[in-house]
Design goal:
The chain has 13 helices and 15 strands. The chain is an alpha+beta fold.
Length: 435
């Protein structure tokens, strides 16, 4: 478990994770522009992740939101075309339901393709930021040559920083499998309730692997990671999870490669929750002995997404009643006529509900409150003169979790979901998001 006492320590660890696999280059460019909608100066970063040669070994999973952004629409076409040579990402503006959004997206991809001497259908786009705003296409086209000139084959860290919006810090994770390497980056702080994706996640590997095999492995990894996290139950319109292979290094053991892929995805998924807007506690909810795994997943999500459970954890209040309420509100739909005397609930390993009754007293409450405090990433700060909250740190101080275990005693289904608390900072962040 990582613990970081300073931003410099966290930064050094990120650098140690960031070596690019063979066959990839990364370049970024930050620039100023005047937003059409607000008529004021804004800044944007372009991020280019380029292969030395386009690859057929990739997998892309897109959001299923019914109002997809232009990069999702174009990205689906790119994925269907059979090859990807580069990824182009801009932050600040998500290019969702904006005037001429698809045309603007294609124009930027065309320009990058020409600079890299690839086909336009080989550029996978991604945008993140404000919904409804129009991309500053002239400025993007002007700045793309500088982003390409910046391409280097050493570190993915500039890309992890370039795709950030309200994220407090960049997210990078990696694993080695023999001489092959898997490295991934992720962006996401709000609108985290996945159904295939709902964030920006890019994984790169130099492993020699067939497209069909990589696709199957990636879907397996995503099911147990990005599809098991939630911050606010809102699914984004814009986001994507993708893995690309340059196919240059033999893999000694495909089972080990699957494990490495799983680990990178799970680590990034937890990083997304840990860096969620205003998040102070990361909460792991395990439901066991459910009728089946799908029922376990649904019930774990009910607990994770409960505003009352989230706010209690924010206040370091072990309010077991709220937890039971959230667990029970949809129980009838997955486990009709459930006998609550079969249920056991644990917080931090301590039994707090068993044989149909809560196990609560002053000592237990005090110990559980201290347990919640020990899992907090930082303490709540007083708001500033404008009523805004600011976290005292912009790096993850540790990786501890609030562990909640629910044993239903009626089957062999199980699932784990990772969620967060709901804080004053979250409300402020989103109330002031566009202002």
């Amino acid at each position: 478990m990582n613990e970081f006492s300073s931003q410099a320590g966290h930064r050094a660890w990120l650098v140690s994770q960031s070596q690019l696999p063979q066959g990839f280059r990364v370049g970024t460019r930050k620039f100023a522009f005047d937003s059409v909608e607000l008529k004021k100066a804004s800044s944007m970063t372009l991020t280019v992740i380029a292969l030395n040669e386009p690859t057929e070994a990739f997998s892309c999973l897109f959001t299923t939101n019914s109002f997809p952004g232009a990069p999702i629409l174009v990205g689906r076409e790119v994925a269907a075309s059979g090859k990807i040579g580069a990824i182009l990402v801009n932050n600040k503006i998500s290019n969702v339901c904006a005037p001429d959004g698809v045309e603007d997206c294609r124009a930027t991809c065309d320009s990058l393709a020409e600079l890299l001497e690839f086909q336009s259908t080989e550029i996978l786009p991604g945008s993140t930021g404000v919904i409804g705003w129009k991309l500053p296409v002239p400025e993007i086209l002007e700045q793309l040559p500088a982003a390409v000139a910046d391409l280097q084959a050493t570190s993915i860290l500039p890309a992890a920083e370039g795709i950030m919006t309200t994220d407090l810090y960049p997210k990078v994770r990696s694993q080695n499998v023999g001489d092959a390497r898997v490295v991934g980056i992720a962006k996401g702080a709000g609108m985290i309730e996945p159904n295939l994706a709902t964030m920006l996640v890019y994984l790169l590997t130099d492993a020699i692997i067939a497209k069909d095999e990589l696709d199957a492995m990636f879907r397996t990894a995503v099911r147990s990671s990005f599809n098991r996290i939630t911050i606010d139950s809102d699914q984004s319109t814009s986001d994507i999870a993708a893995v690309l292979s340059s196919g240059t290094v033999a893999v000694p053991d495909m089972d080990r490669f699957q494990s490495a892929l799983n680990q990178v995805c799970q680590d990034l998924a937890l990083d997304l929750v840990r860096n969620g807007e205003g998040v102070k506690h990361v909460v792991q909810i395990a439901v066991r002995e459910a009728p089946d795994s799908e029922a376990a997943h649904r019930l774990a999500k009910d607990v994770a997404n409960s505003p009352l459970v989230q706010t209690a954890i924010c206040g370091n209040d072990p309010n077991i009643g709220r937890l039971l309420m959230a667990l029970g509100k949809n129980m009838e739909s997955v486990c009709p006529e459930y006998d609550v005397s079969n249920c056991q609930v644990r917080i931090g390993g301590r039994i707090v509900f068993e044989n149909g009754a809560c196990i609560v007293n002053g000592e237990v409450e005090s110990q559980l409150s201290e347990y919640l405090k020990s899992a907090a990433l930082y303490e709540t700060q007083a708001p500033d003169a404008e009523g805004k909250f600011h976290p005292p740190v912009n790096w993850p101080t540790h990786e501890r979790l609030v562990e909640i275990e629910i044993i239903l005693g009626v089957g062999d289904g199980s699932a784990i979901v990772w969620g967060s608390d709901r804080t004053h900072e979250y409300i402020t962040e989103n109330a002031d998001y566009r202002s």
